[in-house]
Amino acid sequence: MQGDIIYMEKILVKSSNLISVGYDAATKVMEIEFKTGSTYQYIAVPQGVYQGLMTASSKGQYLHDHILNQFEFTEI
Question: Residue 50's domain spans which residues?
């Protein structure tokens, strides 16, 4: 999986740090586009983590607490 880029539909989110989030349930890849211009794909993310991010009142805090340093990622 490492090195492969998955293209997916993304949903715009209200956040001070994030622009959009996408998730592919078949591959468990979550893609996050940041306001800095960077986009990352996180590998082997359970659907519950994606759903948690999408429903979190603070997406940046949820990202920090539950995703960063928890999952392998690739910058695209």
Answer: 10-75
Does residue 3 belong to any structural domain of this protein?
no
> How is the chain classified by DSSP, letter by letter?
-TTPPPP--EEE---SSEEEEEEETTTTEEEEEETTS-EEEESS--HHHHHHHHH-S-HHHHHHHHTTTTS-EEE-
Q: Give the predicted TM-score (pTM) of the model.
A: 0.89
Tens-level pLDDT at each residue, the chain (76 residues) = 455 666 789 999 999 999 999 999 999 999 999 999 999 999 999 999 999 999 999 999 999 999 999 999 999 9
Q: Is residue 44 part of a domain?
A: yes
Count the domains in the chain: 1
The reply to whether 1 falls in a domain is no
